[in-house]
Amino acid sequence: MADVLIQSVTKRYGTVEVVPSLNLEIPEGSFTVLVGPSGCGKSTLLRMIAGLETVSDGKIFIGGTDITHTAPSQRGVAMVFQSYALYPHMSVAENIGFGLRLAGMGKSEMEGRVREAADILQLGPLLDRKPKQLSGGQRQRVAIGRAIVRKPKVFLFDEPLSNLDAALRAQMRVELSELHERLGSTMVYVTHDQVEAMTMADQIVVLNKGHIEQVGAPMHLYNAPATPFVAGFIGSPKMNFLQGPKPWASAPQGALIGIRPEHITLSQTGGQWPATVRHVEHLGGETLVHLDSECVGSLTVKVTGDLSAQAGTTLHASPRPEMLHVFTDGQRVSA
Amino acid sequence: MPTIFKGRSQELAMLFPAMACLVLIIVVPFCLSIGFSFTDQRLMPRPIPTRFVGLTNYERMFADRLFWQAIGNTVLFTVLVVPFQLMISLCVAMALNAAIPFRGLFRTVSILPLLLPITVVVAIWAVLYRIPTGPLNTIYQLFAGPEAYIDFVGGSDTAMVAIVVLSAWATFPYQMLIYLAGLQDVPGDLYEAAELDGATAWQRFRFVTWPCLRNVNIFLLIITTIQALKLFTQVSVMTKGGPNGSTTTIIYYLFQQGFTSQKIGYASAISVFFFIAVTTIAVLQRVFLKNEGEQ
Ligand SMILES: Nc1ncnc2c1ncn2[C@@H]1O[C@H](COP(=O)(O)OP(=O)(O)OP(=O)(O)O)[C@@H](O)[C@H]1O
Ligand SMILES: [Mg+2]
Questions:
Q1: Of A55, A86, A291, A308, which is least surrounded by CB within 10 A?
Q2: Are A83 and B208 within 8 A, CB to CB?
Q3: Residue B52 has what DSSP assignment?
Q4: pLDDT tens digits, B206-218
Q5: Chain B residue closest in CA terms to A74
Q6: Nearest CA to ligand 1 atom 22
Q7: pTM for the predicted model, two decimal places
Q8: Which of B189, B192, B196 to mutate to test the interface with A (most CBs of A within 10 A)?
Q9: Chain A residue nearest residue B198, CA to CA
Q10: What is d(CA B158, CA A313) in angstroms, rounded to the nearest whole number?
Q11: In terms of C-beta density within 10 A (0-12 exposed, 13-18 middle, 19 or more buried), how is residue A162 classed?
């Protein structure tokens, strides 16, 4: 267990700066999730921590030690790849034990460690199989097992669940969270899926074009996004940004105003914004209603239960005023 | 017509020209040589008609000391050239797969031997091997004194090695290209995972590259073996099978018997034997290596 400290780290490919001077503290034992749109530099940052990518400028510390120029295997990190990266010709047991074998660990001790990891991940019956005889979820577990046996100070995950189907993804989210509780290790997890970020993280780092938009606990980011980018990125469906010259009377001139779909109520009879229903999505427990309003442009509203509205009919949408998010010059205006 | 061919007339029509050529230039002549191998057919027509001689050609072949020497030479050549050539091919492929400067240029240059006719390659190496002042002997003289030289092509101990080296050089780019394709198919993150697992460069080769090249290796082993067993041109141009028959290969011996001595019947028997031997070796390699790899 150790904390990770990233100090003015810069990454350049030739003349292109993909990560401009970035500072970040990953507390010991935390589950930190790096999120952001594709190409924002999440993998690059993670790979710099792993040592698979050189750092152009700045320093990285793990547990107080400067490891900026240390070989990947000496950093005390283990990484789980999106593609699993299992050695195709080795059995599950050999895959998990490979790092220990290279480190010169004795056979019996190694077998013990492999078995221990296999037990945690319920891989016991599969130890003799080859990776191609496993399902995607099982392969993912082997990849995690390979990380566990090395007892790393820091676990690094690069979109580990993106190749799995939705049901398995949901299950693995829970398993990974349980694993984190059980091991208590520092974990750094890259994803572009904000649901994974919200459900698993102690700390979310929102990246955009290589710089940090905001760092904080999931609910903090949800309740008080620092920038419109974070506001739009965290939460599903996306936050509505009101259009029109002055959509909200008490807001400052030129402010950007956002309201989450779950914080708008709909009524047949009367409300703030009359709007025409464009499309209705029935999700079972809840309904998403897409509307067009003369005053504030297009809106998405999430209502619990089923709502039988026909496209083309007019409804009245009313925001909960205390839930409005106001931004000026790209920053949140408090209160 | 069998049901699998039903409604496939278009495909069959497209296959036809290639199949017809194959039959005409390979299958028919081979069947003819099976027939000839039981006769005393000569290359030039003779007044006496050709006779059926039964297994005489085969009996003679198995008792022929020169035939066995040719087999020995062919096996020796194959055993030497296959590992040597595959090793060069793999080393060059790995160098060209790494992020070296001017990689594109080196890739282009390295396939040049493939573009040269084999006779030109032999001419180049004949210059390199020349006595007493060819480039290789000039280097040798730096170590062994100004008067010393090695008669690479003329010595019965060194002639086969000389042929091995030049043959490997002449055709290695083909294997190299296939290795290069194989190397590019190895997923990059396996190397990264191995690096995190603490593997050294050698261990990354041993535990990632080499096992991932397994199928490529099997394929190359088979085709390089077949290529080696067919050795002819280099010998024919450079040593004429000598000195003392030390570089006479099966195909060269067959050629001598059929076209120099005009004994087509006997040469046909050798070619039938050669065909069976090569097929058997290729099939054995395939079966043996396949079984080992499958679980
Ligand atoms: N080897 C490279 N050379 C040049 N540019 C690169 C290289 N690798 C990555 N980049 C650039 O760096 C930026 C960040 O890439 P990175 O892979 O970190 O994105 P990401 O956030 O992980 O995206 P994704 O969600 O798609 O995986 C991208 O704009 C990418 O084009
Ligand atoms: Mg990525």
A1: A308
A2: no
A3: B
A4: 999 999 998 899 8
A5: B198
A6: A43
A7: 0.82
A8: B196
A9: A73
A10: 96
A11: middle
User: Whats the size of chain B, residue-wise?
Assistant: 295
Structural contact between residues A202 and A53, judged by C-beta atoms closer than 8 angstroms: no
Tokens 């016991």 sit on residue? A124
Task: State how far the alpha carbon of A333 is from the alpha carbons of A208, A235, A253, A257, in Å.
Answer: 20, 19, 12, 10
Mean pLDDT of B43-70: 82
Q: Which fold has domain B67-114+156-290?
A: MetI-like fold (1.10.3720)
Q: Share the mean pLDDT of chain A.
A: 89
Contact by Cβ (8 Å): B222, B43: no
Query: Could you tell me the two tokens for B214?
Result: 């397994």
Contact B195 A83 (CB under 8 A): no
For B122-178, what is each residue's pLDDT tens digit? 888 888 888 878 888 888 888 877 777 777 778 888 888 889 999 999 888 999 999
Phi, psi for residue A325 in degrees, rounded to 5: -110, 125
Task: Label the pairing between strands A57-62 and A65-66.
Answer: antiparallel
What pLDDT, on a 0 to 100 scale, did the predictor assign at position B295?
39
Nearest Cα residue to B268 out of B71, B60, B41: B41
> Degrees (nearest 5) of the Cα angle B77, B172, B93?
135
Is the per-residue pLDDT at B253 higher than 50? Answer: yes
Instruction: Report ipTM for this prediction.
Output: 0.84
Please name which ligand lies nearest the alpha carbon of A210.
1
Per-residue pLDDT at B100 exceeds 50: yes
Reference A211, options A5, A20, A42; nearest CA is A20
Residue A155 φ/ψ, nearest 5 degrees? -95, 135
| Domain layout of chain B by residue ranges | 67-114+156-290
Q: How many Å apart are CA B73 and CA B248, to the nearest integer?
A: 7
Q: Which residues pair with A148 in a beta bridge?
A: none
| Interhelix angle B103-110/B65-97, nearest 10 degrees | 170
Which strand ranges, in their side-by-side order, compose the sheet holding A16-26?
A16-26, A4-13, A57-62, A65-66
Angle value at C-alpha A197, between A193 and A201, nearest 5 degrees: 160
